[in-house]
Amino acid sequence: MTGQVLIQDRTVAVGWVKAIVAAAQRGGGDEAKMLTAAGIDSLPNDPLVRIPLDAVVRLWRAAIDSTGDSAFGLRMGQAIEPTSFDVVAYTLISSNSLREAIIRLQRFQKLISDGGRVQLVERNGLEWMMYQSMEADLPFSPQQVEAALACSVTLMRWVIGASFAPARICMAHAAIAPLSVYRDILGCEPEFRSRFNGIGLPPSQLDALLPARNPELCHLHELMARRQLSALKHSPNIKQRVAAILQQLLTRGMAHKKQVASLIGMSPRTMQHRLAEENSNFAALLDEVRHRLALKYIAEPMLSLSQIAELLHFSDASAFYRAFRRWTGRAPGEYRRTINPQPAIPRADSEKADYSAPDA
What is the rounded CA–CA span in Å between residue 282 and residue 101? Predict the structure, then answer.
């Protein structure tokens, strides 16, 4: 299975998701309502955050419903900005030719989304940039496909110039917007109900030198993209990600399920489902992280046991005492004396009795 992405693991970069929301807002859509309908709690500012593909499909449906615009996908693709693609966009713009840019897009497509793939194919004297949707459980809408093709045209205008127009465009679905809108946004009228989705280009256009080419800058951008791709391929599983976030949050305040889910770009329900697939759950991970931090804190003699209970956000000292006995088989005070026989600070007799006495 190396190199493959399981259907339930397909995700989309948060930059692309934010572009969908921004386009819908321009058309009168309500961000909060759309995110709620999609099961997405929030869109973090971290460009490396990923959103589950099916949640993005639900977001598309909510955006189309909220705008009532049959050409929503076309308008979204037309308005896309390089920042939505982060380092991938700058790698493409600084390429020597459009052919090189498309090859790099193929290479780094996963950094944008697991929901689609592009490939370059020669047919009938034209070079075709084919787009293939890679659905998870929920089918894509025609607007999603149109957004991908319109975005590709916008990308080509970034690298070639604003006057770029493709020789031909094919779409596998029927027209869903006025033909004039297709012509205005794409630069030509698509051929509908085709056998594939793609953009046809003459070879001379693919191989012409680009005005913003910069081999040195392109090399630096590509190195960054390769690092991000490697990190994405070797990213920790959901259980590891939740545990890491819990540990960070517990040092600053109580960690809540909704807060953790938001930070990994999922709804609480989706996070719980994904944890269940890894034979875990939120409560068990919270308990595990508290256990690990408790052992760390109890080795620090300047922290009283009541302070440790507070740091771990237990409701009271006795709740911490019971949890520690469950984790280690010993009372906290007894455990501390085994690793640090001479505490650095004195403790009140009541605290010693509370944490060291055997269970009744």
Answer: 43
